[in-house]
DNA sequence: CCAATGAATAGTAACGATTACGATTTAGCT
DNA sequence: AGCTAAATCGTAATCGTTACTATTCATTGG
């Protein structure tokens, strides 16, 4: 997923092209890590001093629904990153300081015994937390 | 973990005994599922109509720190349940409607390759989401 | 190229969950 | 019983997120 592809996808789904959307996407293209709505606002402040919460949150959630962004929640705060180009389903090691991630191959769901629990499974979350090399210093 | 053991642990750590704490713990003993602060308030409303947020949140967080409760976050809301009596480290299948859980044996961390990522790992989360039999109907 | 139209945005208010604070009450000790 | 620190109440403040109305803007069709 890159900015061009994302904009195509938006157009395809009937969303309009705006500079703000392009620039928001560019922020994610430049930062390959989980960032918050506030981070986006801060980064774009020089360009768009009055960028509205409504705009940020609505667009982030649109991007996320379209599969342009991946989403997680750390410390009660939603964080987003560009969807990994990797085609295979995988999980992440996440730096709790800067949001940087590292892919972890495989998925624990594969090794699970047959589901005889009576539960209808709809999703799962596997994340490993820690601190990246730069943030460990 | 049960109410008696939890109260002993509290006393041991220098916390005082109060009826509210006992009754809060009893709520968790009766409900073997993830519940929210609001659920606790609702359940105890007949007994303690004016139970304060301060009291609830402070105690929940104390219980959690002492390992009396397990904590997770669903939909941006903190949820708590009595710590499983199972001694082995394990994970849960969680019903998104009622919070009921089912233990899943083993932990995906064990099957992970040696950590050569440069990350210092401090924790992980593996949760499976779905709907229990009762809530699937 | 221009006007129409419906989506996108700004500015701000509302909201829900959580945390914080001063005043008061209470448990545990002497 | 009286003292002291912890616990609680009532409520306000905070934080992240969502919602609303008026306005602006991208797209489309003449």
What does this structure look like?
- 2 copies of one chain form a homodimer.
- In chain A, 34% of the residues lie in helices and 26% in strands.
- By secondary structure, chain A is an alpha+beta fold.
- The first copy, chain A, folds into 2 domains: 3-82, Arc Repressor Mutant, subunit A (Orthogonal Bundle); 91-136, Dna Ligase, domain 1.
- In chain A, the strands form 2 sheets. Chain A has a 3-stranded antiparallel sheet with strand order 1-3-2. A 3-stranded mixed sheet of chain A has the order 5-4-6.
- The mean pLDDT of chain A is 94.
- The interface between A and B is medium-sized, with 33 and 33 residues.
- Strand 6 (120-131) of chain A pairs antiparallel with strand 6 (120-131) of chain B.
- The structure holds a DNA duplex (30 and 30 nucleotides).
- Chains A, B: Fe cation binds at residues 89, 110, 124.
- Chains A, B: It holds the Pfam family FUR.
Topology:
Two copies of one chain form a homodimer.
Chain A: H1 3-12, H2 19-30, E1 35-36, H3 37-44, H4 53-65, E2 69-74, E3 77-82, E4 91-95, E5 101-104, E6 120-131, H5 133-136
Parallel strand pairs in A: 4-6
Antiparallel strand pairs in A: 1-3, 2-3, 4-5
The structure holds a DNA duplex (30 and 30 nucleotides).
Describe this protein with a few key phrases:
DNA-binding, Arc Repressor Mutant, subunit A, 5 helices, zinc ion binding (chains A, B), homodimer, 137 residues, alpha+beta, Dna Ligase, domain 1, 2 domains
């Amino acid at each position: 997923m890159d900015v061009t592809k994302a904009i195509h996808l938006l157009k395809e789904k009937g969303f309009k092209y705006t500079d703000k959307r392009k620039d928001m996407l560019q922020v994610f293209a430049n930062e390959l890590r989980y960032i918050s709505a506030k981070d986006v606002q801060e980064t774009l402040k020089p360009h768009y001093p009055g960028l509205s919460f409504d705009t940020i949150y609505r667009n982030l959630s649109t991007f996320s629904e379209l599969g342009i962004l991946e989403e997680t929640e750390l410390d009660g705060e939603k964080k987003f990153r560009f969807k990994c180009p990797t085609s295979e389903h995988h999980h992440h090691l996440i730096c709790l300081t800067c949001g940087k991630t590292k892919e972890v191959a495989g998925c624990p769901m594969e090794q699970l015994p047959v589901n005889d629990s009576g539960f209808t499974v709809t999703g799962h979350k596997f994340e490993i937390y820690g601190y990246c090399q730069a943030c460990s210093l």
